[in-house]
């Protein structure tokens, strides 16, 4: 299936439960928080290699002192970086990282943190083509988040994407429209962009390129505003497909040219 780009506020990069406090905290506990913050800074600078190293160190230290929240936060962070590394099987490495989280610690961490682990696990299962397992995980998570645990937009976004990938474009469109209406005013903008992309691709599959283009342009505008290169590439590819379906060869070539430049820049190549 197409990889989902997860919003930072959905599966958050967490600096660690110690935050920036230094008053009276044991040195090793403070080190977990400091390493988490440094890893977060490296991540946002695009230095995934350094972020991975720092999160690994933070996770090791958190495990030494049985800092359950620190272990959960750094496991999420490390899995996120492994997924985005571009390495073959990155999703599998990330999933293995989350599966190492001790079951007994789930009962002592905040429910929101446990839900983030579950949602990221569902996304990784979807990345690996294990849609049935991903949907089963989402069903359980939806029950846990019935009162809205702050992750509902991400849950519905992944659900709609999986339904679309299974070929039920009409149901995917319906799910996306309901979620957009529910979360438009207060949802995570990254997840709203994911939902708009599903709406666009589902509309195209249903033979409505005009609606598809409108939704995809809105997704692109959001992803550009939030500086999300991987998602911008997804939007441009979908817009190119939409233009081709509409018989607009000029727009098709335009979007493909923009997509090529984004891909070249992501690969570190100079502009043409």
Description of the structure:
By secondary structure, this protein is mainly α. The chain has a domain at 1-110. It is built from 13 helices and no strands. It has helices spanning 27-44, 48-64, 68-84, 90-99, 103-106, 111-127, 131-144, 152-165, 169-183, 189-205, 209-225, 229-245, 249-266. The longest helix has 18 residues, at 27-44. It is globular.
Q: Please, how many helices?
A: 13
Order of helices and strands: HHHHHHHHHHHHH
Helix content: over 70%
Strand content: under 5%
Identify low-pLDDT runs. Answer: 5-12
Q: Give the mean pLDDT.
A: 88
Helix/strand layout:
Blueprint: H1 27-44, H2 48-64, H3 68-84, H4 90-99, H5 103-106, H6 111-127, H7 131-144, H8 152-165, H9 169-183, H10 189-205, H11 209-225, H12 229-245, H13 249-266
Helix pairs in contact: 1-2, 1-3, 2-3, 3-4, 3-6, 4-6, 6-7, 6-8, 7-8, 8-9, 8-10, 9-10, 10-11, 10-12, 11-12, 12-13
Structure summarized in a few sentences:
With 272 residues, the chain is mostly helical. The protein is built from 13 helices and no strands. Helix 6 packs parallel to helix 8, helix 8 packs antiparallel against helix 9 and helix 9 runs antiparallel to helix 10.
Features:
mainly alpha; 272 residues
